[in-house]
Amino acid sequence: MESVEVFFWSKATGTFLISSALLYIAWKKMKNKAPKKDHPPDTVIVHHLGRGPYAPSLTPYGIKLETYLRMAKIPYENEHGSASSKKGKYPWIEYNGECISDSQLCIEYLNDKRGIDLDRDFTVMERGTARAFQKMLEENTYWAFALDRWVYNVWAACKAMKVPTLAGYYVRRQVRNNTYAHGIGRHSSDEVYHIMELDLKALSDFLGNKKFLLGDKPCQEDCSVFGIIGNAYWQSFGSPVESAVKKYSNLCDYCERMKQTFWPDWDQCITHGHTKEATK
Ligand SMILES: N[C@@H](CCC(=O)N[C@@H](CS)C(=O)NCC(=O)O)C(=O)O
């Protein structure tokens, strides 16, 4: 090839790559921009992906946040869609014009703004224990569940959640990368399921025959436990996670009890396996 031709093609390829990168960055920025809408004052606007086939959100953190808003009796409205937070995650909230990302930071922000403490009746030891269980589930068990759904059983999950194949490849890659960085993704699937089993056993042993995590009265951390375990209980689509959770009758009863207590409108908030629109 002539050197002029080589120069032309290198320049064309370079221009194409740079413009594609710029377009991608612009698209990402647009996608992450908070929609500018007028919202009622003192009402939380919850942004998340949408209602699930068998639970009120497609994500455990969506179930967690909405359960908290109900437990704390805070007025809220849902805005379902693919606009992620500035941190690139779901869910996130808008409150009186402010945007807050991360379900836990949203909860702490609202507690602070509205003077709420759902754990006020518990001792420091109980509060510490509840936080330890919350963090075990969110920072460890969650990733085992993510591997089960998005790596080991990705095509069954895509079918059950109506996720297009291309998006399935993208999410699988993301979860592989994220779990590799976390560490759990470096283990074999047998080892991952073993880790998950030990977490579920620890939770079941601690819950015993209590109604909620700390006793007869629900605590703030129950929202996280319900988000993670409830999502696995109702939305594992027959994967090994489903049988692992269902092995513990107290975890199943717990999910049903949380649903009964905080979600009297549950049936309106799910799509019944995509057979109906969720009406709430
Ligand atoms: N610590 C975050 C976790 C949220 C989270 O990981 N959400 C997932 C859905 S379950 C997500 O947005 N994933 C998209 C991504 O990681 O790019 C929270 O509590 O909100």
Automatic annotation (TrEMBL):
Record-level GO cellular component terms: cytoplasm
**Domain Metaxin glutathione S-transferase, chain residue ranges per copy:** 197-258
Q: Does the keyword Cytoplasm apply?
A: no
UniProt entry keywords in alphabetical sequence: Membrane, Transmembrane, Transmembrane helix
What is one Pfam family matched by this protein? GST_C_6
Q: Which residues cross the membrane?
A: 6-27
Q: Which domain of life is it from?
A: Eukaryota
Q: Which residues form the Thioredoxin-like fold domain?
A: 60-153
The keyword Membrane is annotated on this UniProt entry:
yes
User: What's the family?
Assistant: Belongs to the FAX family.
Q: What's this protein's name?
A: Failed axon connections homolog
Q: Report the source organism.
A: Mytilus coruscus (Sea mussel)
